[in-house]
Design goal:
Elements (H helix, E strand, L loop, with lengths): L4 H11 L4 H8 L3 H8 L7 H11 L9
């Protein structure tokens, strides 16, 4: 079963020692929007999803072996 992307975002952000504010600055989003994504109140656009993945260095498509 796949893990919810919100949990992946939150866990990776915390692992990096980043606040929601830091992630917001890195992605160009408002801190309140990052909070709403992590809490499940809002969903990012596809572009926003990839921007967050890029900022957190999350590989969406792992390389094939």
């Amino acid at each position: 079963m796949m893990e919810d992307y919100r949990k992946v975002f939150r866990d990776k952000r915390k692992k990096l020692g980043w606040s929601q504010y830091k992630l917001a600055k890195e992605t160009g989003f408002a801190q309140s929007f990052i909070n709403e994504i992590e809490s499940g109140k809002k969903n990012p656009s596809l572009d926003g999803f990839f921007r967050i993945c890029e900022a957190l260095e999350i590989k969406v498509f792992p390389e094939e072996e």
